[in-house]
Amino acid sequence: MYKSAVVTIGNEILLGTTLNTNLAWLARELSAIGLPVEFSLTVKDEPEAIFQALKQAWETCDVVITTGGLGPTEDDITKNSIASFFGAELVFEPEIWEEIQKMFAFRKMKVPECNRCQAMVPTHFKALKNERGTAPGLFFEDGSKSFFAFAGVPLEMKHVFENQAKPLLLEKYGNSNQVWQYTLHTFGVSESALAELLADFPKPGGIDLAWLPQTGRVDLRFYGLAKNAVEETANRCNALIENYVWGKNEDTPAQVLLNILQEQGLQLSVAESCTGGLAQKMITDVPGASEYFLGGVVSYSNSLKQSLLDVNPKTLLEQGAVSEQCAQEMALGIKNLTKSHVGISVTGVAGPDGGTREKPVGTVCFGFSDLQGTWSITHAFNGDRESIRFKAAEFVILTLIKHLRRTIA
Amino acid sequence: MYKSAVVTIGNEILLGTTLNTNLAWLARELSAIGLPVEFSLTVKDEPEAIFQALKQAWETCDVVITTGGLGPTEDDITKNSIASFFGAELVFEPEIWEEIQKMFAFRKMKVPECNRCQAMVPTHFKALKNERGTAPGLFFEDGSKSFFAFAGVPLEMKHVFENQAKPLLLEKYGNSNQVWQYTLHTFGVSESALAELLADFPKPGGIDLAWLPQTGRVDLRFYGLAKNAVEETANRCNALIENYVWGKNEDTPAQVLLNILQEQGLQLSVAESCTGGLAQKMITDVPGASEYFLGGVVSYSNSLKQSLLDVNPKTLLEQGAVSEQCAQEMALGIKNLTKSHVGISVTGVAGPDGGTREKPVGTVCFGFSDLQGTWSITHAFNGDRESIRFKAAEFVILTLIKHLRRTIA
Lengths: 409, 409
Fold this sequence. Notes:
The structure is a homodimer.
Chain A: E1 4-9, H1 11-14, H2 21-32, E2 37-43, H3 47-60, E3 63-67, H4 75-85, E4 90-92, H5 94-106, E5 120-122, E6 126-128, E7 137-142, E8 145-150, H6 154-173, E9 180-186, H7 191-197, E10 208-214, E11 217-224, H8 227-240, E12 245-248, H9 253-264, E13 268-272, H10 278-283, E14 293-298, H11 302-307, H12 313-318, H13 324-338, E15 342-348, E16 363-370, E17 373-380, H14 385-408
Helix pairs in contact in A: 3-4, 9-14
């Protein structure tokens, strides 16, 4: 079985000012193609530290990947350390320099001279095209071993890995040790209640189950080397807890919702208060959302709730903006204003201030209005402002999914 | 200068299913008390891997901290590896067992037998009380060196570090080596152009500068042991590049914008198309935004651009929704609709589809309308849909900051 190592280079990670999200992403990608990460090292932007880390990783693993330290300002150190470790010279490659110049021209900017260093490539290395930034990836192989260096910006690293490194790795190492995964996304049930439902669920040997609590919901991931057994086990599990499963694998709440709207030929609009645009942002994360999502209103002030959404001033006065009555009027109001088939709304106390004894921080009211009528629910979320807003935005989407699915059945 | 190392133990980190947030948190805490992290290692829940990692860290650093591997199910491996590395025996400590039993009794639960192992402590080690869970921390010292082991659950790790480990570290090492930081956030200038501007910038000895590229902008972080010198250097740098600096340290674009709106007594509203609500979400990330942010519209469909924002159908027909004319009409429209002082708008091609030769994916038009008039700009972003949307939402906020600051001057 092949082994890989990830070396993260960057003072900012060791100062704690940047979270190492690259490691988690690379670890998932590498596991999935049968090159699980054996260990990971994080070191400073210092030649000796980089050299020693490369030594340790290269001596023990088949595939070594570094991230960070390839920007135009810190480039020299990392690239020199890499070249020195592999006994290579740095050579200027005019083609890369041309690509960098084109990129700046597209942005109508002058190319600063210090970017020249990004066109330097160690001898015997291959430069990997980076269409998302100016630092190309680097690739070197020695017999059965492979070395890759990527820029630290996650967007650029992911782009170069997916488009350049992954095909090279699949060709060289095959994917016979590929770990297959099948994820069920659940909603509206606690982890422990789910565990009780699945207490006697029989899992064949070689299939593992990971419980992955997400913010406000739980994912179940089955994984193993036998693709069919993984799928079959996940499907059996799905049949047991079907009412709680809203999606599978790469599904997102917004994508699933848009699929249902498409199936049912419905157009949606949204009125948000405490989530401030987040629910609509999630829906429009999906390319092509515009066919079934018309748009909506962020009625952050009470005046907009009245003037745009036709919320009754009496409702605001007597029951407050955070009330089921207000949520219903907002949902009906946005449906009428935009002439959509379905209107939904979110209004709540996201905190940290604004909570009362009756409506503490985390209280959120949701409104739903469609051809069948208008209704509402209230839910209490815990956590800080950010997580309350995130959970509330997902909640309104997931609840609408549940509602629309029942409508078909 | 003292040095520390963090060893993370856990298969889930190397599978990529868990993000290593413990490292970033510990790194900040340790830097702040003068024990900066020299390097960090992440290894599997395997005795030999743990042993080797402890060896590498203990040989080179003054303070070694491990996280993970102390739960009731995986406890034996880690604790045995630690004991074996330090040549200790595991001894049952009845007092800890009593604490664990009390904790379960409080939750009205039976103590599973596997929790007994959590009362085992290596000889010469001190158990550190964990009031958030069942796995106590472990502490060992040898001359000037200190070793700590914490459970991997962030809540428990932080609790034991803050209440038990930090006081011990401060007493033993003092905090005369505290690292001070000062960050300048820039916008509208590339990393390499900034590097040219600062090519001759004199940095006193002992002050380091980290270049931190964010998505679409760059942060400069000065750090060192002398608080005054760090601040003074950052301020001198700020004076040189003032036109590009939008904030300092913990500032966010939305917070800075809201402060300016407050200073100038202005109320804002927003019309978004391609960003789908993200700009408004960012603004409302700030508690108390409602005083200066009224709300806005997500006019995802052309029909809403016309009916709510009063965009001229001729504009849409002749110049398209992604045009400076449309952006200006949207900004003016949302200002009028909401009776705000300032209206801003975003309309563009976020991709992956919808690009043309004239308006490729990444083309975004921004509109601004206030008492002085209505104007617009166009910017070309690269990246995928997610990053184009993110950069565009930050861009409209940061551009408004620049505009409003000039207005005062």
